């Protein structure tokens, strides 16, 4: 084979290298360096963390390129950035800037209420959110090289991420045990591409890495998601909205690696200071639920 | 249950751990994930997988792996480092004052090919492997210079991308991301019979 850039193996492989790690939201070089020093496997460069996006209201867009550039120059670990759902040009701009991974994210205000980006057309890999296997398989069909639960971003409440992770896992298990003649109807019911379901059944698992995201606020939350089968963890507002970001960042990294060492997680959770203030999802009006964005 | 089968550990702090374990199983060998330093006593060879070298290094230091890993190598136990593993094993890292494990006589340049958009796959010739080997480079390092007793196993565009020094094997690329187990086999054959494999390769 001649040299090939941006192949499926190269894009999915990049996400495989992040496994067992923590990806942290940062808004400047200083935070990026704290994240890197604490053992983050990547940072997500943003203008605002999700909880501040919620508070600010209005239209949330791709971060100011100056912030993305500042973060790119500050650390040697991979840098991710978010583009609006369906915003082909924001994604191309981030790709041109040299961002290592793009999150086509429901945290930002969608630019297209019908179509997602055709991610297979890009050299840079994409991560997308999902709440169930139908959504996961559609994103893979469009070329996403990595998945994450949507959870409910900026709430510090893990309940939605747990729901989404359990649902995807249960639906994958069901597909894996199906007969040939049942698969097409399942594809129809899930709204999932048939070929992707066939692949999942053949491999016995999703063909891409699936991280947890949307509500991770404590080391125990991160460990819980790993226990439920997540390949790794995104922490949005949880680190830099906590009382002691350095300690929280490091404790979440350690709890992700040693997620079934409960004595250690207990120790890590001592004297951390308070976690970010959380939001009860049932008190969140339907129009403020970011997880409903995406189609 | 005691048997003579050699056991290969994969450093399981972060990265593509399961992928290496799948390869080991595909070769019909016994593999285990190493998360505690004392587990090093139970294995005959170790793989340091691809992942983020700074994140893995952070956990190596914090969880007391540094000295046990250095002793593991000093006892001539074989270690394979892929990508981040290569960075961790190197004695010297370009543009950096400190090395990590500092075991292998190579100078490594991190992210040598650029950012993720520059990551690629290509078929390469590797010493000891018949035909070509599918090589996946992801934000990969390469070796700038090697010590006199380091054997070069593969180069790409003039840069060294796989090498061996005694019990230490490294590659810039990720054999664990392909279905081809031939590169891993080079290593596991050495774990199984160090002297025999020595003569085949050298």
What is the first-to-last residue Cα distance of chain B?
36 Å
Fraction of residues of chain A in helices? 40-55%
Strand content of chain B: 25-35%
Question: Judging from the principal axes of the Cα atoms, what is the shape of chain A?
Answer: globular
Instruction: Tell me, briefly, the overall form of chain B.
Output: globular
What value does the average pLDDT of chain B take?
93
What is the topology, as strand order, of the major beta sheet of chain A? 8-7-6-5-4-3-2-9
Head-to-tail CA distance between termini of chain A: 37 Å
Main sheet properties of chain A: 8 strands, parallel
Main β-sheet description of chain B: 7 strands, mixed
How many distinct beta strands of chain B? 12
Oligomer: heterodimer
Q: How would you classify the helix and strand content of chain B by structural class?
A: alpha/beta
Taken in chain order, the helices and strands of chain A follow as EHEHEHHEHEEHEHHHEHEHHH
- H/I helix tally of chain B: 6
Number of E strands of chain A: 9
């Amino acid at each position: 084979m001649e040299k090939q850039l941006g192949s499926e193996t190269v894009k999915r492989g990049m996400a495989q290298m992040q496994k067992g790690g923590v990806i942290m939201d940062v808004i400047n070089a200083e935070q990026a360096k704290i994240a890197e020093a604490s053992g983050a496997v990547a940072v997500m460069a943003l203008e605002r963390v999700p909880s501040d996006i919620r508070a600010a209201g209005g239209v949330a867009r791709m971060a100011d390129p100056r912030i993305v550039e500042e973060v790119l120059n500050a650390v040697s670990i991979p840098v991710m950035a978010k583009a609006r759902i369906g915003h082909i040009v924001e994604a191309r701009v981030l790709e041109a800037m040299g961002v290592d991974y793009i999150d086509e994210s429901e945290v930002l205000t969608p630019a297209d209420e019908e179509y997602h980006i055709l991610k297979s057309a890009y050299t840079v890999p994409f991560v997308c959110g999902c709440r169930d296997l139908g959504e996961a398989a559609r994103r893979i069909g469009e070329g996403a090289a990595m998945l994450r639960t949507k959870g409910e971003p900026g709430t510090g409440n893990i309940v939605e991420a747990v729901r989404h992770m359990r649902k995807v896992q249960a639906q994958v298990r069901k597909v894996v045990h199906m007969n040939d003649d049942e698969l097409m109807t399942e594809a129809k019911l899930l709204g999932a591409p048939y070929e992707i379901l066939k692949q999942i059944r053949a491999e016995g698992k999703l063909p891409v890495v699936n991280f947890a995201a949307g509500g991770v606020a404590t080391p125990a939350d991160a460990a819980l998601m790993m226990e439920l089968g997540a390949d790794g963890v995104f922490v949005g507002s949880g680190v830099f909205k906590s009382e002691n970001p350095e300690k929280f960042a490091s404790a979440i990294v350690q709890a992700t690696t040693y997620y079934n060492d409960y004595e250690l997680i207990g120790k890590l959770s001592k004297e951390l200071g308070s976690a970010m203030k959380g939001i009860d999802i049932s008190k969140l009006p339907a129009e403020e639920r970011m997880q409903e964005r995406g189609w | 249950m005691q048997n003579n089968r050699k056991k290969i550990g994969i450093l399981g702090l972060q990265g593509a751990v399961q992928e290496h374990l799948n390869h080991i199983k595909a070769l019909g060998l016994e593999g285990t994930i190493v998360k505690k330093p004392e587990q090093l006593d139970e294995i005959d060879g170790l793989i340091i997988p691809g992942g983020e070298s700074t994140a893995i290094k952070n956990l190596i230091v914090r969880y007391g792996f540094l000295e046990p890993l250095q002793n593991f190598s000093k006892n001539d136990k074989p270690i394979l480092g892929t990508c981040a593993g290569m960075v961790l094993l190197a004695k010297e890292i370009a543009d950096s004052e400190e090395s990590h494990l500092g075991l292998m006589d190579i100078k490594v340049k991190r992210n040598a090919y650029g950012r993720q958009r520059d990551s690629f796959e290509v078929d390469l010739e590797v010493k000891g492997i018949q035909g070509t080997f599918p090589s996946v480079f992801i934000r990969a390092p390469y070796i700038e210079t090697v010590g006199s007793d380091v054997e070069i196993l593969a180069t790409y565009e003039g840069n060294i991308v796989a090498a061996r020094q005694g019990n230490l094997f490294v590659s810039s690329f990720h054999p664990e991301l392909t279905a081809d187990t031939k590169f891993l086999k080079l290593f596991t054959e050495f774990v199984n019979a160090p002297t025999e494999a020595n003569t085949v390769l050298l």
